[in-house]
Amino acid sequence: MNKTILSLLGLTLSVGLSADVKRGQQVFNQFCANCHGDKGQGLVGPNLTDKEILHGSSKEEIVKVIKNGVLEKAMPAWGTILNDSQISDVSDYVKSIIGKNLKNGFVAVKTTVSSFPTGTLEKPYLIRTYMPALDLDKSIFVNHGKGGNVNKYSPGSGKEDPKKVQKPINGLPSTITVNFGQELSYTFDTLECRLLYTWSGQFLDMTKYWGKGTGGGRRGFGYIPDIMGDVHFKTSGAHPFKGKVQFKGYRKEKGIPVFLYQAGGLSISLKITLGPKKGEAICEYRTNSKEPLKIKLPPGIQSSSGQSGSLILNAQQAQNFKLIVKGAK
Ligand code: HEC
């Protein structure tokens, strides 16, 4: 081959490439720029112009990550949204910007939000967030819908993709969690209307959910906060009150949450405070019962007179009684 042909070949090749890159840039602007920035400099998705390339910088590898996405990190899969030549073009575009080292467009926002919120005895901190189910028995969650897999929704096509499956979030959506400082934290479930568990020590690590104070770390679905202290009590067995339960809301008495619900035809209010020992919780119940009441206490809960198991309250006691939830040993 002589030089002229070679350079001609080179010319057509580079012209062809830049046309691909141009088309790829259009695809990029339409589908990718809102996450990766208009020039690929990064926004909520990573900077594609720097040298930190997690999934490889060959065309093959780029095509693969674009096709399949990184679902647990919120990079969508484009394999069913874009056709092969669009993916090829946009991969060429991505390849062309690697190494440009553009400054990341993401400006860290200063925020007062801490991923380690805390309350005090006088001013407990209340949060409604997904909470871990720990290893509580499934039979406790009779009123929870069974979160099933769903087909993944694609924002690009506005359709669900029958081939892609999204698992349900692995946490309890219906809880109210309260922290009194180092001494006591607890989680109450509003669907089951019962205290699920208690702990003492540090409260929650919200980093997976809130990020590191730079505005949101929630990526993908793995954002259930972590319990940081020592768990003392986990509920088990049937609900203490027989019959259907329904949550009616909560109010605060001098800053302390009081849960209102119905169970087995009774109106019940439950106020949970710290007992004399670390991690010990006192549950104060008020009901509108006119009759004696039989309730079944799960292990770890006693009456104020030290009874456990089945508890029989006379009509007067049934209107206002306290139960003690064991704390630290
Ligand atoms: C909803 C936000 C979002 C959109 C839209 C999006 N991405 Fe991503 N992308 C991400 C995130 C988040 C990651 C990081 C994945 C990881 O950390 O493993 C990523 C990773 C990547 C990577 C791998 C980077 C590396 O370091 O290896 C490439 C390449 C990429 N995206 C290209 C694209 C292209 C091309 C499009 C458009 C067709 C696109 N992305 C659309 C969020 C997005």
TrEMBL record:
GO molecular function: electron transfer activity; heme binding; iron ion binding
Cytochrome c domain sequence ranges: 19-98
Keyword Nucleus attributed: no
Entry-linked InterPro entries: Cyt_c-like_dom (IPR009056), Cyt_c-like_dom_sf (IPR036909), Cyt_C_IC (IPR008168), Cytochrome_c_Oxidase_Subunit (IPR050597)
The entry's keywords: Electron transport, Heme, Iron, Metal-binding, Transport
Pfam families xrefs: Cytochrome_CBB3
Residue ranges the record marks as coiled coil: none
Protein known as: Cytochrome c oxidase, cbb3-type, subunit III
